[in-house]
Amino acid sequence: MNSTYALETRALAKHYGKTVALRGIDLAVKPGTVFGVIGPNGAGKTTAIRVLLDIIRPSSGSAEVLGQNPRTGGTALRRQIGYVPGELRLDGRLTGATLLRYYESISGPVAPGAIEALAGRLDLDLGRAVHTLSKGNKQKLGLVQAFMHEPKLLVLDEPTSGLDPLVQQEFLRMVREARDNGQTVFLSSHVLSEIQQAADEVAILRDGRIVIVSDVESLRETAIRRVRVGIMDAAASAVQAALAGIPQLTDLKLSENGELRVEATVEGNIDPFVKAIARFTVSDLALEEPDLEESVLRLYSAPEATDEN
C-alpha cells in the first residue's frame, strides 16, 4: 500500500459468522485532511474504526495507519492517535483532571496548559468526579483526552453525541484547527451538517459498503435545490412548455396571483433551469441552499450500493 496516506484500506472485510459488517471497503485518507464517514446505524462505521485501531481484527483485506500495520504498530503507533469511541464509558471517583493526567502517562507528553485550555473551550469543570458528570460532560472529557497531546491522527466516532449546539460548534473549530496544524482527522458521524462544515472528503457507507467517496463540494453539486420564481407578463402554459424538457426538474407547481409564481425542485446542475426562465421577465427569485441531507438519504436508499473510489 501507499504509505503516503494517513489511512488506507484495501478490500477490508469483517464478518461475524453469517453477519457481514464490512464488505471489502477501499479508503485512502490524505495527511492533514478531515475525512468524514456518513452512514446510518449499522452501516459499518464503528466496525471500520475498530479494525483500523486494532481493537478487532479483519476477516480479510488490509489496513495501514500512519504508514504502519495497526496489528504490529504497538504502543509507538497508538501514541500518535487520539481516539473518541462511539460509546464512551467513563466512571469512577477520580476528578476529570486526575483522569486526564493518567491518560497523559499513556498517550505521551502534553504541552503545559493544553488540558486546561481545551477544558475551557468546551466549558468542562475538571474538578468534578467523573461519576458525577452528565453524558455531555463525559463526552467533553473524552474529546480533551483525544486532542490534548496533538496526535498526528484523530479518530472520532460520533464525537458530538450529548453535546449542546454551542459546544458542537466549538468542537468543529477544534477540528479545523487540527487540520490547519497538519493533523489528520477521521470523523464518523450521522450528523450531516457536522460533516458538511468540517470535512474535506466524505465516504458514504451503507450496509458495509462504500456507496461513494467525494469531496463535500462535489456532493453538494448533486444535491437538491428548492427554487421559487416570480415571472411577469407570461402565460403559465408558456412557462410550463419552457421548463418541460429539463430532466433535473421535479415537483413543478405554477400559480397565478397577480403574477405567475413557479415552484420546483432541481436536482444537480441548475444551469438548464436558469437558462429556461431567463427568456421571461423575472421579478423574484429564491434559491434554497442545497439540501445535502436529502441527497445523502437518497444514496442510502438506493437499491444497490457499490464501491466507487
- The helix/strand series, from N terminus to C terminus, equals EEEHEHEHHHEHEHEEHEHEEHEH
CATH superfamily of the largest domain: P-loop containing nucleotide triphosphate hydrolases
The CATH architecture of the largest domain is 3-Layer(aba) Sandwich
What does the radius of gyration come to? 24 Å
Class by SSE composition:
alpha/beta
What is the total number of structural domains?
Answer: 2
Write down the overall mean pLDDT. 90
Q: What do we call the CATH topology of the largest domain?
A: Rossmann fold
Taking strands numbered 1, 2, ... along the chain, how are they ordered across the largest sheet? Answer: 5-6-7-3-8-9
Major pleated sheet: 6 strands, mixed
Q: Uncertain segments of ≥5 residues (pLDDT<50)?
A: 305-309
Annotation field: number of helices: 11
CATH class of the largest domain: Alpha Beta
Silhouette: elongated
Roughly what fraction of the amino acids lie in strands?
25-35%
Helix content: 25-40%
Task: Give the oligomeric state of the chains in this entry, treating copies of one chain as homo and distinct chains as hetero.
Answer: single chain
Secondary structure: number of strands: 13
Give the CA-CA distance, first to last residue. 15 Å
